[in-house]
Amino acid sequence: MSSPVDWQAVYDFWFPASLANADAAAQWQRLEWWMRGGANPDLPRFVSTVQAAKAGQLDHWCETPCGRLSLIIVLDQFPRGLFAGTPDAFSSDPDTLRIAEEGFRNGHYEALTGLWERFFYFLPLAHAEGPDHLERMRRIVAISEQVVDQVPEHLKPIWEFSLKQARDNFDVISRFGRFPHRNPTLGRISTPEEEAYLAKGDFVHQRTLPAVARALGATG
User: Fold this and answer.
1) SS3 at position 112
2) What pTM was computed for the model?
3) Which of 32, 65, 158, 201 has the fewest CB atoms within 10 Å distance of its CB?
4) What is the rounded CA–CA span in Å between residue 150 and residue 70?
5) Where is the signal peptide, in residue numbers (predicted)?
6) What's the Cα-to-Cα distance from 193 to each of 141, 176, 197, rounded to whole Å?
């Protein structure tokens, strides 16, 4: 088996240099790539990196803001592509949340300058189920509202979509205290209300991109 890559290789894979100056169309396309499994064909080469991260062998990446962000991506994003449909897709969530919260306290989050960097940094707050989940979702909604107020006009539709996703996830956690769509994978018994929700199949993480994205070239 190959050795784990360093954090820079993960960072460069997830955030191509061209993203910094990308127009709205390119950013919509990248969002679709991130959220609709575009990375999945390339993820097997990171299996040893994920395993090392799960074992705590890459904790030294947390010495820098971008290293910490890269470890978050390895533990939060990569398992969702590599192990989709199995409990392993979510098994790193508690550790990833801990790593992210440490970075909020020590200034690493604030040190990140890119909006997409910050976006992927705070996703573990949304993904990790637990007793403080609703409060974490409230924090994400507040952060997302600030971003919408600050971004250039031509990028507002992207971040308005992100804000709506955050608000809709807040509603799900408000209703159920967890993500019901995970129940079959994790072997959890669904409540009658969750059964009704699952029957509709309208899951936030599977929502199609808005019409403006499709008009600019993202398939949605």
Assistant:
1) coil
2) 0.93
3) 201
4) 25
5) none
6) 25, 8, 6
C-alpha separations of 125 from 3, 52, 53, 220 in Å: 29, 22, 18, 25
Q: Within a domain: residue 169?
A: yes
Which residue reads 């924090």 in tokens? 139
Taking a C-beta distance cutoff of 8 angstroms, is the pair 26, 89 a contact?
no
Q: How many domains does the chain have?
A: 1
pLDDT one digit per residue (tens) for the chain, 220 residues: 467 779 999 999 999 998 888 999 999 999 999 998 999 999 999 999 999 999 999 999 999 999 999 999 999 999 999 999 999 999 999 999 999 999 999 999 999 999 999 999 999 999 999 999 999 999 999 999 999 999 999 899 999 999 999 999 999 999 999 999 999 999 999 999 999 999 998 888 877 777 665 555 555 4
CA 213/CA 219 separation, integer angstroms: 8
Residue 93 lies in a domain: yes
In a domain, 183, yes or no: yes
Reference 161, options 207, 217, 201; nearest CA is: 207
Write out 127-174 in H/E/C secondary structure.
HCCCCCHHHHHHHHHHHHHHHHHHCCHHHHHHHHHHHHHHHHHHHHHH
* Cβ proximity of 14 and 120 under 8 Å: yes
Query: Is 2 among the domain residues?
Result: no
* Residues sharing a CB contact under 8 Å with residue 105, sequence separation 6 or more, in sequence order: none
